[in-house]
Amino acid sequence: MTYASTPPHVLCQDLFKIYKIADLEVVALRGLDFIVDSGEVVAIVGASGSGKSTLLNILAGYDSPSAGAVQVGGQDLLRMSSKQVEQYRQRQVGFVWQQTSRNLFPYLSTLDNVSLPMMLIEMDAAERRARAVDLLEMMGLERRAEHTPEKLSGGEQQRVAIAIALANHPSLLLADEPTGELDDETAAEILDLFGVVNRELGTTVVIVTHDPDIAYKVGRVVMIRDGKMSTEIRRRITFQRISGVAEQDQELEEFVLVDGSGRVQIPRDILDSLNITGRARAGIEDGKATLAPDE
Fold it and tell me: What is the pTM of this model?
């Protein structure tokens, strides 16, 4: 994998994460590499158990890898003290969960929910209120400021959740299936809002999703399989923003990913067509890499 000349905002190298459950070891990440440029919007897609949520939790500072390196905004998350990690979560990263109940306090108003994270960084009351009002206006919720969550629709609750995640001016916004519990129309509106956030605030956005059309809505989609990045889908025409509408007239390009150790996951359909099972012969012909079954 090659790296850009300017430092990326997110840099993960050879990440491993092993969970021990009783006498069993579960490997969630297996030498994963992942790069996101500053101001970019990237979607991560993969089957359940592929490591998507584990990666987001590590980037959010909620979990640590068993091995490897991870940097966000030039900060080495593995060299941080517990206090520094706490400050990182408060100021540098915002997180939106799929379940709206995890994002909101049910007994607080919309305005108070958005204001609450700012109390953790000792922002004065006037500044907290002004910031919260601005964010609610961006989310189209200025008329719902005094409503508690049960008086809001699911889409409105998720809009509040995004505002909360942005309260302390994070440079990185992470979203774990933010549209998973919403109907198609409302989900499209939420994705459009992520586009507004990216465009107006310059926030780097990473979204985990099962949306089958996500490749037509963002500039780059990375597929994760068995704890490693396997393939990447990009627009043939440069596209940075995110949209709730699938622009299916756009041509897509798909690439396999080669990590820093030279590992690559060959798509199963290619292996099957070549009748490759356990071993293969790799070589170079006319300047191109070749792969053939071991005969």
Answer: 0.89
